[in-house]
């Protein structure tokens, strides 16, 4: 047991010689975890500005535009018949979309023809583009459906039958695990896992020079070396588990993010993830000669690690060699397990593969550290 405490003391002595690393290890994850969700705190877009380009000027075209303006997602801020003015407003960023009512819109609709309403949205803002296109399309389709029902009722004299003919089936869409349909609910839980890993790797890397100033005890055998390695990992795993508790039960409540998982499932799995990430960080730290090299390299790899984790890009579409590479990163299995347990409320049976992946990484990285100590 003394080897375990010797390992922990070895790491804490390195921190005493390089106290600046404590800023990264104790503060960075909390800081980023607190501010990262802030830009997405509104969760969904509301009152996106659009331009009404009404070339028809009829009662029906005005009704469609009124429906669009009444939508909680859109707000008509300007209108005219000048296409050039509408385009310039879009280019300046005054509006995020244009709704164009074509000439003879009402006449074609009343004759049973199919007039085309133009919806132009700035695809440079992907989420805004989706909201503009969806909300405007729904308003146009609702108006068209009402016209169809009215026309069928006039022909048949049976309003109920007219509604059944025009809308033979109803659809009810329920958002599971993300009731608000917000971007923050989707991205923050996964990115939080990557933030924990990357700040941990950077902090441990910054101690690389300080560790070389210490004098670890001589080897006492394979088992003692393994115990010593896990002693080295213990302070950082415990520290980051505490930070996870503050983030999961503090930041999630602050930003009202979904949290279907229970602590007795989330914490053991995340403790395994943090142990694997800590051992990974200790292995990487041995490869650095200077602490100045740590931050540039690990920051450069952060974005690829996000993509390899599989939440922002479908895993089956990632080339197979990169999928195997991703399995060597604790964050990949960490994201999978945390999202399933915390967002979906899954049980142990649904996270056996991520847990097995992390267990294999713990064995791999601890074995490398033991080998480095002995040879």
From TrEMBL:
Cross-referenced Pfam families: ABC2_membrane_3 (PF12698)
InterPro entries: ABC-2_transporter_component (IPR051449), ABC2_TM (IPR013525)
Main location: membrane
Statement: the UniProt record of this protein carries the keyword Transmembrane: yes
Subcellular location: Cell membrane
Residue stretches making up the ABC-2 type transporter transmembrane domain: 24-369
Lipid bilayer topology: Multi-pass membrane protein
Transmembrane segments: 21-39, 186-210, 222-242, 262-285, 297-315, 351-371
Protein's name according to its UniProt entry: ABC transporter permease
Taxonomic lineage of the native organism: Bacteria, Pseudomonadati, Pseudomonadota, Gammaproteobacteria, Lysobacterales
